[in-house]
Amino acid sequence: MTEFDWLQAPAALIPLTALLGLLVGSFLNVVILRLPRRLEHDWRAQAHEVLGNDVVLDEPDAEAAPPDLVFTASHCPHCRHRLSPFDNIPLLSWILLRGRCRYCQAPISRQYPFVELLTAVLSAMVAWKFGFGWALAAGLVFTWILVAASGIDVRTQLLPDQLTLPLLWLGLLLSLLPVFVTPAAAIVGAAIGYLSLWAVFWLFKLATGKEGMGYGDFKLLAALGAWMGAMSLLPIILLSSLIGAIVGGAALALRGQGRDTPIPFGPFIAAAGWTWFVFGEFLGGFYARLVGLQ
C-alpha cells in the first residue's frame, strides 16, 4: 500500500483529473491568446534587427512586448481592469458573471468557458483510458498541447513550432521507455507523418499553383506519428478529412462563405489524432468487424 493507492480508483481519479483540466484550460486560454502576439512581436523585432529601417513596425506600441504567458496578471481586454482571483475561477466565474466583465459589463468571449470545459472533459477521458500512471501524465500533456495548438490555429491559422516541435520530441523520448510505441515505430511514424503531408502539399501546389496547407500541419502529423506510430497515420488522416468535411463545411455554410475560403486544417488533425489516441483500439476493432476481418 502506498499513499497514492486511492488515486487508482476511477471514482477519485477521473473527477480530480477533470478538475485539473479545468485549471489547465484556464491557462491554455492565456496561451491561445498571448503566444501568437508574442511570436509576432519577436518576428518583427528580429526582422527589424536584420533589415533595419527597411521594416516598418505598424503596431501602436511596437517596442513594448506583449504580456508574457505566466507572470502578467489577467485583465479585461475592453476596460483593461485587472481581474481579481474571483473573476478567474475556471468556468464558474463566467457563469456567475453571466458572460460579462464585472467592471465594464463588456461581453466575455465564449472561448474561455469552452476551452476550460473542453480541456476538463478530454482530460477526464484520458484518465478513464489510461488510469493512474506515467501513461496518464504523458496523455494529459499530449491533450493539453493539442488543445492549445488547435485554439491558436483557429484564431490565427498558425501552428507554432513552440508547440508542435516539443510534442514531436516528447513523443520520440517517450518511445525510449517505451510508453506507447517503440523507438523504431516512433521514428518511422514521425518521418512518414511529415513526408506524407509534405508530398500532398507539393502535389497540390504543382497541380493548382496554390498552397493547400501549412508546414505546421506537417509537423503536427509528424508528432502524432511519433506518439502512436506509422500505423496510426492513415486512420488519423481519414478521420481528419471526415471531421474537416463535416465541421468545416458546416462552418462555411453557416457563415455564407464559399469553398475557396481558407480554413485551418490543424484542429481537424488534432481532433482525429486525439480520437485515435484514446479510442483507436475500439475504432480499429469496430472497423475490422465491419469488414469481416474479425
Describe the protein in words.
With 294 residues, the chain is mainly alpha-helical. The chain is built from nine helices and no strands. Helix 4 runs antiparallel to helix 5 (161-174) and helix 4 packs across helix 9. It starts with 9 loop residues before the first helix and ends with a helix.
| Helicity, as a percent range | 55-70%
Query: What kind of assembly state do the chains in view correspond to?
Result: single chain
- Can you tell me the residue ranges where pLDDT is under 50 for at least 5 consecutive residues? none
How far apart are the termini? 41 Å
* Record field, number of beta strands: 0
Order of helices and strands: HHHHHHHHH
Look at the helices and sheets and give the structural class. Answer: mainly alpha
Q: What is the number of helical segments per DSSP (H or I, 4+ residues)?
A: 9
Question: What labels would you give this structure?
Answer:
single chain; 294 residues; mainly alpha; 9 helices; globular
List the helices and strands and how they pair.
Layout: H1 10-51, H2 92-96, H3 111-130, H4 134-156, H5 161-174, H6 183-208, H7 215-228, H8 233-255, H9 266-290
Helix pairs in contact: 1-3, 1-4, 3-4, 4-5, 4-9, 5-6, 5-7, 6-7, 7-9, 8-9
Q: What is this entry, summarized?
A:
This protein has about 290 residues and is mainly α. It is built from nine helices and no strands. Helix 8 packs across helix 9.
